[in-house]
Amino acid sequence: MKIVMAIIKPFKLEEVRDALTAIGVHGLTVTEVKGYGRQKGHTEIYRGAEYAVSFLPKLKIEVAVASEFVSQAIEAIASAARTGQIGDGKIFVTPIEHAVRIRTGETDTDAL
Q1: Tens of pLDDT along 54-106?
Q2: Is this structure's pTM higher than 0.85?
Q3: Which residues, renumbered to this chain, carry the PTM O-UMP-tyrosine (predicted)?
């Protein structure tokens, strides 16, 4: 089992959710986050004053999948979130040692 974590642009959420649903992923967690990478933020003008926005709004999506579905999940997220512009995001994969569904007590891949 693995957790696939992706940092994406906020307007790509529905496309990513639809792509994951299409491959059989039924649950995900979304968190609003801020950050920067090579984008390094941008400048904005508010009431005539220019100021730098260092941290850009992003979404962090976390999906728990069985190990054999990791590459499918990565491909679905990457293809749906890709705009071709800088700041499209990153995907990280980390192992899960143990999972338990609280309601039924199912464990590991049955709990996903």
Answers
A1: 788 899 999 999 999 999 999 999 999 999 888 889 999 999 999 999 999 99
A2: no
A3: 51
How are the residues of the chain apportioned to helix, strand and coil, as percentages rounded to the nearest 5? 30, 40, 35
Provide the 3-class DSSP secondary structure of residue 38.
Answer: coil
CA–CA separation, 73 vs 71, rounded Å?
5
How many domains does the structure of the chain reveal? 1
Q: What angle do CA 48, 55, 53 make, to 5 degrees?
A: 10
Q: Which residues have CB under 8 Å from 109's CB, separation 6+?
A: 1, 66, 99
Beta strands 2-8 and 56-65, pairing class? antiparallel
Looking at residue 32, which CATH number applies to its domain?
3.30.70.120
Amino acid 31 reads: T
Q: The domain containing residue 94 runs over which residues?
A: 2-111
